[in-house]
Structures are given as C-alpha cells and as structure tokens.
Amino acid sequence: MRQVEPHSTKGRADLVLATGETVYAFEFKAVKDASESRLDEALAQISSRGYLDPWRASGKRLVSVAADYDLAKRELAGWRVMKDGPQEQTTRKPR
C-alpha cells in the first residue's frame, strides 16, 4: 500500500509506504545545495506530527525516512533512516 500525502490529525506526510512487515514514513526537504541539511528537521516532523501513529498497534516495524533534495543539482543530497524502538539511525549521502 502506498499513500501520497496521507492526512493525520497534525498534518500530512510526503509519502507513507506499507509493505508486509514494515511501514515507512517519508519526509522530503528541499535544500539549496548539498552543504545544507534539513534531515533532523524532517525526522522531528515525522515524530511530532505522528505520521506513523495510525500503524503503532499493527505490530509492523515502523521506519522514518528523512531526505534532502538538492535544488541546484536536482538530486537527493542525503538521507537518514530511523527505525522505531531502539534508536537506530543510518545517514547516507550519495556518491
């Protein structure tokens, strides 16, 4: 199941993707260039606005994905993945 900009009581996620065992909430932020990062802001938004809350009782693994989009290069400048539960994070920048 895929939902683009699904509504919650506090706002809209950019994308929610549910697979058999995992639900992903994506938040994309535009940046002027790769030296700027809004990943922390995007992850905080997913959490504070409760984008994954509708799936908390589902028993599925919940994953927040923040991504910076470089407006100058028109590509992803970096992303960070945070799994629900024990705070496990992965941050990547494309090569």
Q: Which outline best applies?
A: elongated
Which radius of gyration do the C-alpha atoms yield?
A: 13 Å
Order of helices and strands: EEEEEHEEE
Strand content: over 45%
Short note summarizing the structure:
The chain has 95 residues and is mostly beta strands. The chain has one helix and eight strands; from the N terminus they run βββββαβββ.
Can you offer a commentary on this structure?
With 95 residues, this protein is mainly beta. It has one domain: Trna Endonuclease, Chain: A, domain 1. It contains one helix and eight strands; from the N terminus they run E-E-E-E-E-H-E-E-E. The strands form two sheets. It has a six-stranded mixed β-sheet, covered by helices on one side. Strand 6 and strand 7 form a beta hairpin. The longest helix has 10 residues. The protein is elongated. The model has no long low-confidence stretch (mean pLDDT 85).
